[in-house]
Amino acid sequence: MAQDSVDLSCDYQFWLQKLSVWDQASTLETQQDTCLHLAQFQEFLRKMYEALKEMDSNTVIERFPTIVQLLAKACWNPFILAYDESQKILIWCLCCLINKEPQNSGQSKLNHWIQGLLSHILSALRFDKEVALFTQGLGYAPIDYYPGLLKNMVLSLASELRENHLNGFNTQRRMAPERVASLSRVCVPLITLPDVDPLVEALLVCHGHEPQEILQQEFFEAVNEAVLLKKISLPVSAVVCLWLRHLPSLEKTMLHLFEKLISSERNCLRRIECFIKDSLLPQAACHPAIFRVVDEMFRCALLETDGAPEVIATIQVFTQCFVEALEKENKQLRFALKTYFPYTSPSLATVLLQGPQDIPQGQWLQTLKHISELLRKAVEDQTHGSCRGPFKSWFLFIHFGGWAEMAAEQLLMSAAEPPTALLWLLAFYYGPCDGRQQRTQTMVQVKAVLGHLLAMSRSTTLSAQDLQTAARQGTDTDPRAPAQQLIRHLLLNFLLWAPGGHMIARDAITLMAHTAEITHDIIGFLDQTLYRWDCLGIESPRSGKLARELLKELRTQV
Amino acid sequence: MESLLQHLDRFSELLAVSCTTHVSTWDPATVRRALQWARYLRHIHRRFGRHGRIRTALERRLHNQWRQEGGFGRGPVPGLANFQALGRCDVLLSLRLLENRALGDAARHHLLQQLFPGPGVPDASEETLQESLASLARRRSAVHLLRLNGYRENPNLQEDSLMKTQAELLLERLQDVGKAEAEGPTRFLSSLWECLPKNNFLKVIAVALLQPPLSPRPQEELEPGIHKTHGEGSQALVHWLLGNSEVFAAFCRALPAGLLTLVTSRHPALSPVYLGLLTDWGQRLHYDLQKGIWVGTESQDVPWEELHDRFQSLCQAPPPLKDEVLTSLETCKAQDGDFEVPGLSIWTDLLLALRSGAFRKRQILGFSPDLSSV
Fold first, then answer.
1. Which chain regions cross the lipid bilayer (chain A) (predicted)?
2. How many CB atoms lie within 10 A of CB B166?
3. Which A-chain residues 430-489 have CB contacts (< 8 A) with chain B?
4. d(CA A367, CA A388)
5. Which of A84, B164, B238, B353 is at 20 to 30 A from B131, Cα to Cα?
6. Which of B77, B98, B99 sits opposite A138 (nearest CB)?
7. Fold assignment, B163-213+230-362
8. B199 close to A (CB below 8 A)
9. CATH 1.25.40.490 in chain B, residues?
């Protein structure tokens, strides 16, 4: 308590000084500085109120002799009054100072002065005498016409900005850059006031004809903050303009998304999808510049986390949402694929962007082989020894996880000899950094496993042990080795689809999941598979039911 | 229902008293009661907003009161003039009391406690009085900030925010008065003309006549047949202007040519009277041989330049107005003797000036003069 009051005294001196410098915030510098400190000052006011409400008026004056000056200065700074709840908290503070029963003329005067300040906060602005007489003559009080006046002013300013934007040099009433900048500063405290939304939107969308950015940094930051916290509702086009004009805002939005993903429950793609759609990033990413920045940040995240499956899953969900948004976008602005994926061959990008639902089932195998060829060519053309080349191709490929999963399903479903191309594709997906020899070995292991599974699918009875034997075909003991993960996923796939699979599923999984990491991997696989079936609208009732049950049980275990 | 109406009556009286010195007799209990009544009426507004019959009954009661106080021109407009005002009656009362210096210390202290209780559990269902007041303060600052930084008066009066807002208020009030009494608007406007600054009033009327027709307010659904749009208010204005030649003359004199052209285009009923006025003004001028220009005899006569500007503006209006004007000018010219030589008939000279002006402008700009951008 004592420490609190010491802090308060320190802050008090700091703010008293600041307010004196700001005065009525009529210059560029004072306005900018005020805008930077609006949130902190409001916090200070709250703390002051908490302290003041415990004391009576006389004690307050003893403790903070200059309090009235401080509050008065705050009242005369229109930026402070316009911000969030500051005007309300100021009123509370002022009310604490009113003397219920003034004993002497000094106290009466104080009451009078406080009364004046309250009046100032709540009273009407002085317009021309004529206007005042007019409104009074019609029997209207400020409460009646302030909302309407504000609305008209906002619309008028917004249309001026729009005219400026459309007509450029032609318009007689060209808006001077200083005026536009001034408007953007003024919007900073008002961002969360819904009446001002049209003006904010116009400022973002209409960028006039100046070569450099006119709008103030504080404005962009304030808008972005409000968008992240859902305190303002802007159309996507305005948010896109925001991000295009102010890169830090886009970066901050991505970081905000990452934070949300980290702090939320693991392995729930539906939730990830929710967060991503919420952030407006997929729609914004239809603009290639934004897509590139977002993709770059995903790439960094992937490298930082050493290829964490959660990041891969996020990238896949994002890409899905992005492709959906791109299809809806359609209309005028159609950017070439090259602008989104500049380092990829156009044929590869085109093929990958297609979803399996766009290709007839009979052609899936063909398409997969084609993808495999293109990727293999891209990977093996790179310089040997460095992982960078393959990484680029792999990074592109993992955006579209559906293809890898389809390859696995194709391998399991067909009784024919597994095509090398598909084996390569899967081995690459799970182990991008493997050398040629390592990859070949993985492909051999997988082929063997597939052979066993085929045999098992033909027999009438299955046992979990058989499955375990099939899995043991590999010689690797490292559970994270690419081959291990790939084989594990193949086995899980088998369990879901094979006619007798559901009977041995639980036993098999118990045998497989001997570490927490593996269990998480299995959960991730099931969640991802269910999500994909949901999106594509394909599911067999039995497999779906099994997958859901298994997922539920495993989730309770971790 | 009757008790509700009586409640309304008593509150209206209370509201009227709240800005007089009578409040010096109020004690904290009175303040509390007054605020409770206000809160009750606000609740009524929310509850019966969509209930056509009750709403009409309440509004009718308010209008009756208004009429009894001398109404529609003989006295000030009461605080509650329509149903919508009930939604803000607590804020109205609060602000009046806050502004009233006559309120005693104890009562004032109690008032502040009631209005600003401090942070508490927010009532999600409706906005509290505290929130309404804070919101008003915030909007006030917003207007202040926008005015100081970046707001400019729009040279086109009909697009100027302050003018538009005043115009909207006028139209709304005319609608109220029109609902209360059929002849109300005319008397009301006449009384406003007597006591309000005339220049501003005329501008507001012009802007009001140019407002686009309103769509029905979304939160106020009335029984079909009762609802009126801006159209009613505009009609009342036109009717009043046409019935008051003195006002109309001042209207046409005070306002810029372009604005008048727009108004006349929009309300064709005004064009014959406007043209008639212009004709009268023209006939008062005579030709000064020495100076070679048309001049008036008295100081208040409209000078040639002004007359010319108005006709020029009218000629740039779309048909049928443009045609009407030209026809009128041709007729006057014919009546005067159909001279082609300048200096004999003002109508000839005007037509000559208009045609040559149009020709010159065409030459300079490279296209035919079209609609004025004003």
1. none
2. 28
3. none
4. 26
5. B164
6. B77
7. 1.25.40
8. yes
9. 163-213+230-362
